[in-house]
Fold:
Amino acid sequence: MSAQAAMLGNLVPAHIRNISAYIPSKPDDVLREMYKCRQLYRLNNNENALGPTSQAMEAIKKFAPRTAAIYPSGDAYHLCHRLAERFGHSPEAFLVGNGANEVIAFVIKAFCQPGDNIITAEKTFAVYEWVAEFSGFEARLIPLRDYGFDAENMLRAIDEYTKILFICNPNNPTGTYWSEEKLRAFLDRVDGRQIVVLDEAYAEFVEAPDFPDGMKLLHEYPNLIVFRTFSKMYGLAALRIGYLAGNPAVVDIIRRTCVVYSVNALAQTAALATLEDNGEHVAATRRMVSAAKAYLHAELTAMGLFHLAGEGNYMMIRLPVSDTMIYRKLMQQGFMVRTMTGFRFPNHIRVTMNTLPVMEGFIGALKSVLPGL
Amino acid sequence: MSIGKTVEMRMPLLRDMLPVAVGCAEQTARAFGFGKEEQLSLSLAVEEVFAFLAEKANGDETLQLAWRHGGYYLETACISPPRALPTKVFNMTARLALEDEDSLADMGLLLAARKVDHFKIGREKDGGMGIYLTLEKRYPQAAPESGTVIPDSGFGLSPHGREEMKRFARLATTCYRDAAPAFCRFPGKLVDMVSSGEYDAVLALDDKGNIGGGFLWGYNGKMAEGYGPYIFSGQDGLAAVLVEGALEKLARTGVLCLIIRQPTRQIPAAYFEPLGEFNSLAPDGTPQGHTALYRQIEEDNGMTVFTHPHIESFIRERYKSLALPRQLRPTVYEGERRLPDSAISTHVDRLQTTATLSILVAGDDVQDNLAKHIAALRNEGIKNIFFELNLGKAEEVQLVPAVLGAGFKPRLILPWAGCGDLAVFSHSGGE
Structure:
């Protein structure tokens, strides 16, 4: 500690002083150079290997470069109207953000003040916890039960300072989900006293008939907010665009905290075009994911490796060795997976489903780097 | 609670101001709960540093003083305008020649260094010079825990309070003797170390409050250094439960890795990678082998490290074995200007009769300086001497020939343990 640093440190709130910055992975070209691999298959971020919809790709191609000089619609006007038509809500029920991560921050900022807390699972998507903590609010983390969100203990953790409950449905990384019946029972017991956020980032991958459609529940539960993204199923991760939907009165409150003009014009254009898809893209992606899961399930079972093949375009695998060591060894062979120690699942990796040849390559690489297999 | 709180002052660097600095040092130590002996030590050290700096000041300079309460220690930072420091006085081997006036002028700093537990110097980002004095709180040593029967089942990870932590410290010392870290002999100190946030622990308790085991770690920049797991119960799988609990606690803290230099025999190997083996002598002189273990917490996306031709094959082999992505940049000393006198930091663990040396200031005399340190440590009965080299600092890596020349051999690389990775050398005389 230097005296100067100590003095500057006084400007920093305690909740910021005690956390570390998230350091994203380096760009592919740097990683290829570092790990000395010629190609790099990204099986780490749950991106769609089939890419965007054909309509979105066409719209991106047609995007006039000169229009880059013009500010985008500050509130994604056309996209909100199109989403309203599609889901049967008013345009005021939607708020578009620079990826779903941004709308998480909007919601927390809108409802929490010093002393408040949010509740979510201990082993789920990290951003709810991070945003709460770097904003100075307590994140109450409830252990999973049978790899799924534990409704009962989440309800028990609520107190007078609880403002928001975050549910990741299906859960990233375990792939477990709450059925419509379970979700309704939970919402009934919350009884409108807190905001319930239902993160449906992977909803489009789910084929289970009892999986709830949060968009349809919005009319019944005004305290419900649904998150959706164009980054996963719709393959627009590079453009960073996601949205939330909720009761217009609630969304009006959230809108007061949002950064307008944060969603660029190309992202809005591509997202609008995505909504023109007639279902072919979703069907093709689901076929790819299903084939990859079936193949991986058979291979991993034969290898004696415990794995969770729930919903979503990913699978979590338990390894007999350190996940971060296997990450480095797989990187040398050109396969980038997500280590799960950071999700509080030591010795697990999460793998994004891809085309069969890539999955075959991954299994070959995994066999070569796991000792004794 | 005042842990983590800071007291700061800026004052003219004039001799007349000395009582103000000394008085503030003493009052701060008292306000932060340090005893009379520690208050006196700190005020004497600050007096010597202030007098030394004021003597060399030009009359209109300012000194910044800051005291930070670390719970089990008090750190004093003295930041002054840049000037050449007599680096040799920072060596534990420094001696004064009474007939030499220059040497006598430096006596104050030497005395200050002896009054506190740790003493270091550094260059600030604004060009200023920092002298840092760390004084540790004194704690009573615990009596061994005797007659405790620990059940063979019923243990799980559980939140713990101060009393559980103190009992854990006593059990670790009783069951593991010299293999437990020295700070466990002072249960109150361990409680304060954990309260400070610089250390953390997971404990396995049963519903009667018995302690089945525990695992400790300290935060050190991007690395956490682990101790254990210490197991007191015969319950199967308890070590894995503790290690998983520790890893889950370390996740999302920003720490990149966990290193255990001397794991206990109960360590669950599946969670770790071996970093390499080294030998040492136990306090009774028995030779013992160790395998240091490594556990990365976050994904490793690589970095550049410096290497010297004399250790390049060792470095390459270690990185290959660990599959760590590193770009090696060779460096050698080519006559560029550097200080004549080096300063070497020495950390001594008398319980383990082990000393660890590292470079505080790179200087021309480093090989002689290392030789003096080794002789002094051997003379004090220290059986194991290690040297740590920052592979992220070219000026340190350029000293490799001197380090090898002083009898050290490279043994391990500790990833992310210093400014980049650390290469650990052991002195061949101790094995």
About this structure: The mean pLDDT of chain B is 88.
